[in-house]
Amino acid sequence: MIEMINVYKKYPNGIVAANGIDVKIEQGDFVYVVGPSGAGKSTFIKMMYREERPTSGDILINGTNLASLKNSKVPYLRRQIGVVFQDFKLLPRLNVYENVAFALEVIEETPKVIRKKVMDVLELVGLKHKARMFPTELSGGEQQRVSIARSIVNTPQLVIADEPTGNLDPETSWEIMNIFEEINARGTTIIMATHNREIVNTIRHRVIAVEGGLITRDEYGGEYGYEG
Ligand SMILES: Nc1ncnc2c1ncn2[C@@H]1O[C@H](COP(=O)(O)OP(=O)(O)OP(=O)(O)O)[C@@H](O)[C@H]1O
Ligand SMILES: [Mg+2]
User: Where is the ABC transporter domain (predicted)?
Assistant: First the structure.
C-alpha cells in the first residue's frame, strides 16, 4: 500500500530529517513510529500525506508517487487519508457535528448521506450525544474523539496520527487507543508516531524506530525500546 524508496529529506535550513528511508507498509498494518525527539518521525509521516515533499526518492501510495504528484492533485490524495494531530485542530466556530461534516461537505455529498455518515462515526467514537456542542465545551479526550471521527468519516484506507495521545492523561489515552484498534480491526491501515511506551509495549503492533532520519529497527510486535 505504501512504499518508500531511498527517501531523503533536507529542510531549507540544512537539517537532514530523512536520510535514505526504505520501507513497505501493507494494507491493514498497524505501525507505531517511535524514536527520540528530533529523530524524524513527524517528517516521515508528513511525507505520506504530502505535507512535506521528499528532496529525493519515491513515495508510492497505492501506486501514486507522492514525490512527483502535482500540487493540484494533493486535495484528492488527502481525501483518501485521515490525519489526526496531537493538538486536535478542530474548527472552534463549528460544533462537533459540523466539524465532522465539514470533510464531507467539501466533496458535495447529499445532506442525507452526510447526516448518516456523521452520526455513524460520532457513535463509533461515543459522542453522538454531544453533536451540538462546541470544541471549547469538550475535554481533551472528547476533542480527540471528534478529530478521529473527522479523520475517518470519508472511510479512508489509511489513518496517520502524530502523537494522538500526547496531550491526554493515561486513562483517556487508553480510550483513544481502543478507538484506533476498532478502526484497524475494520481493515484500515494505522500509522502512529508516539512517545507512549506503555501503550506500545501493551497493545503490540509493528514498531518502526527512527533515529537520525533512518529506520534503525522494524519489528512486528516489537517494544518501545527507548528510555525517553
Ligand atoms: N519545517 C522544518 N524546517 C526545518 N527543520 C525542520 C522542520 N521540521 C522539522 N525539522 C527538523 O528536522 C528534524 C526532525 O524533526 P521531526 O519533527 O521530524 O522530529 P520528530 O521525531 O517528530 O520529533 P518529536 O518527537 O519532537 O516530535 C529536527 O531536527 C527538526 O528540527
Ligand atoms: Mg514529531
Answer: 2-227
**pLDDT surpasses 70 at 106:** no
pLDDT tens-digit readout, 11-24: 999 999 999 999 99
Asked if 201 contacts 123 with a C-beta cutoff of 8 angstroms, the reply is no
Q: Are 200 and 32 in contact (CB under 8 A)?
A: yes
Domain count for the chain = 1
Is residue 70 situated within a structural domain?
A: no
| Assigned domain for 228 exists | no
Nearest ligand 1 atom, CA 44: 18
Taking the C-alpha atoms of residue 97 and residue 92, their distance in angstroms, rounded to an integer, is 12
Q: How far is the CA of 23 from the centre of ligand 2 (A)?
A: 19
Q: Is the CB of 42 under 6 A from ligand 1?
A: yes
Asked whether residue 207 is assigned to any structural domain, the reply reads: yes
- For residue 39, which atom of ligand 1 is closest to its CA? 21
